[in-house]
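My current task is to audit a protein record that another person submitted. Alongside the sequence sits a line of tokens, each denoting a local backbone shape. Please read both lines and tell me whether the tokens look consistent with the sequence. Do not assume that whoever made the record got everything right. Thanks in advance; the entry in question is below.
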Amino acid sequence: MKRDFLCLADFERAELEAMLDLAVKLKRDLKSGNAETPLRGRSLAMIFEKPSLRTRVTFEVGMTQLGGYPVYLQPSDIRLGERETVADIARNLDRWVDLIMARTFAHSTLEELARYASVPVINGLSDLYHPCQVLADCLTLLEKRGKVAGARVAFVGDGNNMAHSWMNAAAVLGFEFVLACPPNYCADARVLDRARQLGGKISVTHDPREAARDADVLYTDVWTSMGQEAEAVVRQEAFADFQINRSLLDLARRDAIVMHCLPAHRGEEITAEVIDGPQSVVFEEAENRLHAQKAVLVWLSEQARRA
């Protein structure tokens, strides 16, 4: 059966750990000059409804390093669901390419692509989840801590797609996740419930200091994401007390690391002192998008070959 990469909660622990192990190997091989090209002759369609730096560059470079060929489709090229239906686009693309990655506004668009495409579909970001980013974050945590299981990850900010994917990762990989958010900006109840049903040790608080105490990871994201610009002033007021700064970091473990999925608004959700400080691994996370996504591409391709 075809496997897609839409949501981390769709995978077993052994499967995500296999992807992380593969990412470690691919990164090591690249750094040592011993990289192989397991996707030689394969192609990846990259669909973008939203602009991107990290997602576009890492998928394009990653597919090229693996020996494959990426095809960039900008928002004006196909206009998902406007010029023609999502289903028809999927049924065209799967006759030309071996993999599809899409960065969309609505998660339902990705689900429709996956439903009608006979090739694996990868979530490059949607309004509900950002699994590629969190897989890269878990790779970074693995490198820094030696293991992912048992960690305490405190997410300070909006209960958004990033928080959702962290909840899923916590449930599958066995670590604690705490979301500190303003009362009206909690996570989607269905996502939270599903993660808890999978056994996730997940809690929600409206006190960022409570979340930060004894945390191994302090994580944040912008207060206003793409498509929310009209809410910017209201959000800045609501999140004013949810900034990762020196005093909040002092509550975490002495060896805690600071993460941010980028782009960052220094002076808003995080101070320059912290994001540029010695405990920040923000740019290592960004680098690991390349290696984690290469692992996803290879893993899905192997699953498709066996199906």
Summary: The first helix runs from residue 13 to 32. The two ends are 5 Å apart (CA to CA).
